[in-house]
Amino acid sequence: MTKRVRRNHSPAFKAKVALAALKGEKTLVELAQQFNVHVNQITQWKAQLLQGLPEYLGPRQGRLHGTNCGFESAPCEDWRVDAGE
Cα torsion for 70, 77, 53, 40, to the nearest 10°? Predict the structure, then answer.
């Protein structure tokens, strides 16, 4: 019996499959056949995507203004556009 090599999928591939599952245009079984992965794997990637979305789309406190931007010597400038506030 030969040993099966474990497949490592790229983050881009995982996102593509998870987004396809999120759209709901095809069933999980159809997506599993299309992308050649197990249904449980698609479910896990979809859950990870949904779990990470609030953090990605949430408030961006401290990312640009008032932080260091990774440079030790100079703080970041305020990059917000003045909308007449």
Answer: -30
Q: Using N-to-C axis directions, what is the helix angle for 39-57 and 11-23, rounded to 10°?
A: 90
Its pTM stands at 0.62
The CA distance from 48 to 42, in Å, is 10
DSSP letters along the chain, please?
Answer: -PPPPPP---HHHHHHHHHHHHHTSS-HHHHHHHHT--HHHHHHHHHHHHHHHHHHHS--TTSSTTS-TT-SS-PPP--------
Confidence class for position 63, pLDDT limits 50, 70, 90: low
Q: What was the pLDDT predicted at 3?
A: 86
Alpha-carbon distance of 54 to 37, in angstroms, equals 26
